């Protein structure tokens, strides 16, 4: 299977865009930049349209999800939209009792802790993904030559929420399960891989030009556990979309020791968090993998001179890699002044290649 001839990546709209060119290791005509969590609480126009509508409900209203995805693209002139949705949407669409509690994060009605709990998980029906496809179609019709990035949660990060039933700092539950009950763990992460893989495939088929797998909490694992208990499921999630030929990005936080293993699940680009300079990330990856990152989100609140010097340093360090897409080293903090983001984009686009 491949993408259809009228897909933005196939019909000439996005294949030569700065983002896709850099993801493929080529030389773009301008330095591409987008921000994780660019759509969301830092924008007054987001808070306005979200008023009175729950987070997951807003993801399932196609016009609203498209509008929220487009808001930061219009405002900041970033080089890509990131689809407005959430990593737990495939759980919700499969029929799992999950919600996003403001200020807390994903919370499940009942945690998934035993082999019986895993066996009861409902299979995600492809037809349930129609609101996602609708939202993507509406979004790409407006984006024109700017690519839309689709995404999904990696199986470890999803399973971490499912086992704990809520956000946690140390992820003790999933880390115990992978050793104490490896078969249950394997079944759970396979389930999560298939749900996330179908969610990402729906976005790519409907018009997204690249895909990013978020393994936000993989940094709580050592390399041996990551390779043995997590990487196979992440590879399985991506197996759902490899045939489509869209560039794939893999990102996690605290993953400086895992970068090679994360690349080895089979992706084109590695997203680097703010902890590791990009020249060192490039060295660890053997100089062959395009990178994305890694402006420290904390510096968005620093005086402009401090932030500007940091952005220049990130660009200089990224020059070592065979391709570099500017981003933050994690999501936009909600209290960020959006004008600072616009100014960062202008600076990046103004700098000589
Ligand atoms: O611009 C974008 O990146 C928009 C799309 C997006 C959202 N969530 C919207 C969202 C993406 C790519 C995500 C991914 C996501 N969701 C991740 C991986 C990225 C990361 O940050 O590490 C994770 C871990 C989640 C789970 C999740 N959803 C958390 C921890 C929270 C925060 C809870 C809170 O209120 O502090 C959410 C909610 C969420 N997802 C919001 C947004 C805009 C905020 C909810 C709101 O505006 O009411």
TrEMBL record:
Record-listed E.C. numbers: 4.1.1.37
Chain ranges of the Uroporphyrinogen decarboxylase (URO-D) domain: 32-41, 149-165
Quaternary state and interactors: Homodimer.
Main function: Catalyzes the decarboxylation of four acetate groups of uroporphyrinogen-III to yield coproporphyrinogen-III.
Class in the EC hierarchy, top level: lyase
The keyword Lyase belongs to this UniProt entry's keyword annotation: yes
InterPro entries with a match to the protein in the record: UROD/MetE-like_sf, Uroporphyrinogen_deCO2ase_HemE, Uroporphyrinogen_deCOase
Record-annotated site: Transition state stabilizer: 86
Assigned keywords, A-Z: Cytoplasm, Decarboxylase, Lyase, Porphyrin biosynthesis
Organism name: Arthrobacter mangrovi
Reactions the enzyme catalyzes: uroporphyrinogen III + 4 H(+) = coproporphyrinogen III + 4 CO2
Binding residues annotated for substrate, in chain numbering: 37-41, 86, 161, 216, 330
UniProt name for this protein: Uroporphyrinogen decarboxylase
Keyword Cytoplasm appears in the UniProt entry: yes
Source taxon at top rank: Bacteria
Subcellular location field: Cytoplasm
Xref: Pfam families: URO-D (PF01208)
Protein family: Belongs to the uroporphyrinogen decarboxylase family.
Pathway: Porphyrin-containing compound metabolism; protoporphyrin-IX biosynthesis; coproporphyrinogen-III from 5-aminolevulinate: step 4/4
HAMAP family in the record: URO_D
């Amino acid at each position: 299977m491949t993408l259809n001839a009228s897909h933005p990546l196939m019909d000439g709209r996005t294949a030569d865009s700065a983002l896709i060119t850099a993801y493929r290791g080529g030389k773009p005509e301008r330095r591409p930049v987008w921000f994780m969590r660019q759509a969301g609480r830092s924008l007054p126009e987001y808070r306005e349209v979200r008023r009175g509508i729950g987070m997951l409900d807003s993801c399932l209203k196609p016009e609203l999800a498209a509008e929220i995805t487009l808001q930061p693209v219009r405002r900041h002139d970033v080089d890509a939209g990131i689809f407005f949705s959430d990593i737990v949407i495939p759980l919700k669409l499969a029929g799992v009792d999950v919600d996003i509690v403001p200020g807390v994060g994903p919370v499940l009605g009942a945690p998934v802790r035993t082999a019986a709990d895993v066996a009861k998980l409902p299979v995600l029906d492809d037809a349930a993904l129609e609101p996602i496809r609708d939202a993507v179609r509406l979004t790409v019709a407006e984006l024109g030559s700017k690519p839309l990035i689709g995404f999904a949660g990696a199986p470890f990060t999803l399973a971490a929420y499912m086992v704990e039933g809520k956000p946690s700092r140390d992820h003790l539950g999933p880390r115990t399960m992978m050793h104490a009950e490896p078969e249950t763990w394997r079944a759970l992460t396979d389930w999560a891989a298939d749900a996330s893989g179908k969610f990402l495939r729906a976005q790519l088929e409907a018009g997204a030009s690249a895909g990013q797998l978020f393994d936000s909490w993989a940094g709580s694992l050592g390399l041996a556990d990551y390779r043995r208990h997590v990487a196979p499921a992440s590879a399985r999630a991506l197996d759902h979309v490899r045939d489509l030929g869209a560039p794939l990005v893999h990102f996690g936080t605290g993953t400086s020791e895992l970068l090679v293993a994360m690349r080895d699940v089979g992706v084109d680009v590695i997203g680097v968090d703010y902890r590791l300079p990009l020249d060192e990330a490039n060295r660890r990856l053997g100089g062959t993998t395009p990178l994305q990152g890694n402006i420290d989100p904390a510096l968005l609140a620093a005086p402009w001179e401090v932030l500007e010097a940091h952005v220049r340093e990130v660009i200089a360090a990224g020059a070592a890699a065979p391709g570099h897409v500017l981003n933050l080293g994690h999501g936009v903090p909600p209290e960020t002044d959006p004008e600072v983001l616009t100014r960062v984009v202008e600076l990046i686009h103004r700098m000589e290649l």
